Amino acid sequence: MKTKLIYFVHGTTYDNASKKCSGWKQVELTELGKAIGIVAHRAPQLAFEVITKNISWEKTNENAWRKTGDWQPGWEYNID
Questions:
Q1: pTM of whole model > 0.85?
Q2: Would you give the distance in Å from CA 60 to the centre of its chain?
Q3: How would DSSP label each residue in the chain?
Q4: CA gap 51, 34 in Å, rounded
Q5: Degrees, nearest 5: CA angle 37-35-71
Q6: Which of 13-22, 23-32, 41-50 has the highest mean pLDDT?
């Protein structure tokens, strides 16, 4: 099944967000010695779900807190 491209402001898609967020994997975050906070809208938050949990966009969208009502004050993602 091919992922449906959903466009956001200025033509950004979920795939674009995933590519932008995957750049975090290349940053040596361990050198900081601390956790970092990222404030993001829907697409980057879902992109981190796809990248860190190695699941499809379809699965991520099905289980998104916006649909399930499982909001929480923050999420943790481990980027190795």
A1: no
A2: 9
A3: -PPPP---GGG--HHHHHHHHHGGGGS-GGGG-S-------HHHHHHHHHHHHT--HHHHHHT-HHHH----S-------
A4: 21
A5: 50
A6: 41-50
